[in-house]
Design goal:
two-stranded antiparallel sheet; 34% helix; alpha/beta
Length: 238
């Protein structure tokens, strides 16, 4: 029986913006925005927050649990192992990967990525090449290929970034969901720098609360209405 689980990796430590997933964004944590949006991805049976098994990351696990989400604890740097453990604990047959620095992740776009993972496809994404605003990135893969990457990948970058082994393996059958392209693909909606949280905080009052504000086109419309927003974190654009 198929079971799709969205696994969101999250940790407290960040060299560029420490504690970013617990920063306040519109009266809530960044993490709460990400997990709530992931809960609305069509076809997802469960959302799991994959958190390092270090004491310093306890606040992240506690926040996810407070919000009502399952938590898996695993190695900090071997994120591939953390994902595999989460997939096993949740009995996932299909895994969607979302990172916790994407508070504007669009459930509908994620659903399109999942839909691209047909019987003949092992891995699907929406950023190969990037064609959506940075911060809408989502990936989906079969449990079989996640387990294969866990067993075979040895490069540190493959362990840290979870999917490069699958993305580059000649045997994996891949699909890409195309986005709108330029100029939207140059916009930065992710969270890595102080300017990014400044952008997100300036944007949030213009976005409808709840599912009405989840669509990326709604966000793009507001950004186009307020072009000064783009300049806030423009120095970090792709």
């Amino acid at each position: 029986m198929s079971r799709t689980v969205c696994i969101v990796q999250a940790r407290l430590s960040s060299t560029r913006l420490p504690g970013k997933v617990l920063l306040d964004l519109g009266g809530r944590t960044v993490l709460s925005h990400v997990l709530e949006r992931c809960r609305h991805i069509p076809g997802v049976a469960q959302v799991v927050c994959a958190v390092p098994d270090l004491t310093e990351d306890d606040p992240v696990a506690q926040e996810a649990e407070r919000l009502g989400f399952s938590v898996t604890r695993g190695p900090r740097d071997d994120v591939l192992a953390r994902y595999t453990l989460a997939a096993r604990q949740s009995d996932a047959t299909t895994i969607m990967r979302v990172t916790s620095d994407c508070p504007l992740i669009d459930p509908a776009v994620c659903g399109q990525v999942l839909a691209a993972l047909t019987d003949g496809i092992d891995y699907a994404c929406n950023n190969m090449p990037p064609s959506f605003p940075h911060g809408l990135d989502a990936e989906a893969m079969s449990r079989e290929w996640l387990e294969r990457a866990y067993a075979e990948a040895t490069a540190p970058a493959h362990r840290e970034h979870v999917t490069p082994y699958i993305r580059t393996h000649p045997d994996s059958r891949k699909a890409t969901v195309d986005g709108p392209g330029a100029p939207f693909a140059t916009w930065r909606w992710t969270l890595d720098y102080p300017e990014d949280i400044a952008f997100l905080r300036a944007l949030t009052p213009y976005i409808p609360a709840g599912p009405d504000g989840f669509g990326w086109k709604t966000v793009a419309d507001r950004v186009q209405q307020h072009p000064e927003l783009v300049t806030i974190n423009a120095m970090h654009h792709r």
